[in-house]
Amino acid sequence: MAQPAGSEPPGRSPDHLDDHVIEVALARLLQIGVGLAAFVVLIGGLRFLGVHWGEHPQYGTFSGEPEDLSRVDGIVHAAVALRGRGLIQLGLLLLIATPVARVIFSLVAFVLERDRIYVILTAFVLLLLLASLTGIVA
Amino acid sequence: MTTLAFTLLVAVGSFLAGLIGALTGLGGGVVIVPLLTLAFGVDFRYAVGASLVSVIATSSGAAAAYVREGFTNIRVGMFLEVATTIGALFGAYVAALISTSALAIVFGLVLLYSAWSASRPRPQHLLSTPDPIAQRLRLDGSYPTKQGERYYHVQRVPLGFGLMLGAGALSGLLGIGSGAFKVLAMDQAMCLPFKVSTTTSNFMIGVTAAASAGVYFARGYIDPGIAMPVMLGVLAGATLGARVLKRATPTALRLLFAVVIAALALEMIYNGATSRL
User: Fold this and answer.
1) Which of A13, A30, A106 sits opposite B60 (nearest CB)?
2) Residue B124 pLDDT > 70, yes or no?
3) What is the pTM assigned to this prediction?
């Protein structure tokens, strides 16, 4: 029963290779998500700085954000118009979408592996995540 | 200060935050909030919004490398995410009922103790026998070391799950500190190797943070002028951090982790004492 941990594999499962293939694909997904988000924020940042670089921002007083920078439809609208702040917010939305996409990807991977326990666990996390993102919970 | 100077200075600070966040599994928030509020006089709500962005950026930015190289235990991450998500919902629900200031001080003191206990190296023989629950859930794994691939058995799964419920509730209640308790639960309770604990925590914190992103956006906490240098700086720092972790010794990483959570503990006690939560 006692199986020492160390350099030898403890009972490799037959789908061990699948796990590694999934890891590589998952890493690629994260890379693409983050890369895309960073690119959009960078373009938006350059446009934003091009206009406002010499101003003196008042971040010490909280005034919230206008609707076109705090709601998804407003942000998309501002970004399509290539406004700097809108593009930055769109990039941040892409950044936030990356972990969500990661959970969806894991769910699909566990379904393909027919790993029932993890399909249930991941589906549960995804449901709660989507519910809290859309404001249904809390 | 002009917008340009602010952007450049915040980007440099955020680079450091991303580097430390990726190495410790804590995300960049530990550094970002005090940096923005104390050094730049930014309003606490904007700082918290930027901190959320920094946590997601550190998590996703470093996770790509950690997952590909085989440090992250994805099954442990997914399994424990169930606990942290339930805990976070519970925490957000009871936040209105209890004094978060007092709670912040209590958890600050707990963290101070944890900083001391995490700084001591863990004896390797604790990792030796398989746990039936861990085997059922196929949590056992392996990770790369200088001596080649090393296999480990995950221990005390129910205790780890319970602590993760607490870590999730804490993040729902206080907004900070969940990464620290994630690493501690995996390292001290479940006996995962330290690099696996920090990289798996790093993998998880992005999802936990993404869950509250909708609320932060809607409340107007996320300002593009602040979030832009934070995100780009943190991403660059996290990318470097992922390279450094590969070569760093667990002892050095433990020491860095202990110092950072001691700072986090003081930050929590300060926030609690000044009632900013």
Assistant:
1) A30
2) no
3) 0.89
Distance CA B54, CA B231 (A): 6
With CA atoms as reference, the chain A residue closest to B58 would be A34
Domain ranges of chain A: 18-50+68-133
Chain B: closest CA distance from residue A93 (Å)? 9
ipTM of this model?
0.89
3-state secondary structure B178-231: HHHHHHHHHHHHCCCCHHHHHHHHHHHHHHHHHHHHHHHHHCCCCCHHHHHHHH
Give the long-range contacts of residues B94-100, CB within 8 A, separation 24 or more. B94/B169, B94/B173, B95/B172, B95/B173, B98/B173, B100/B173, B100/B174, B100/B272, B100/B277
**Interatomic CA distance for residues A38 and A40, integer angstroms:** 6
Query: Which amino acid makes up residue A57?
Result: P
Rounded to whole angstroms, how far apart are CA atoms B184 and A94? 30
**Distance in angstroms (rounded) separating the CA atoms of residues B161 and B148:** 30
DSSP single-letter state for residue B35: I
pLDDT at B131: 86
| Residue that is written with structure tokens 């790509």 in the block | B64
pLDDT digits (tens, 9 = 90+) for B136-167: 899 999 999 888 898 999 989 999 999 999 88
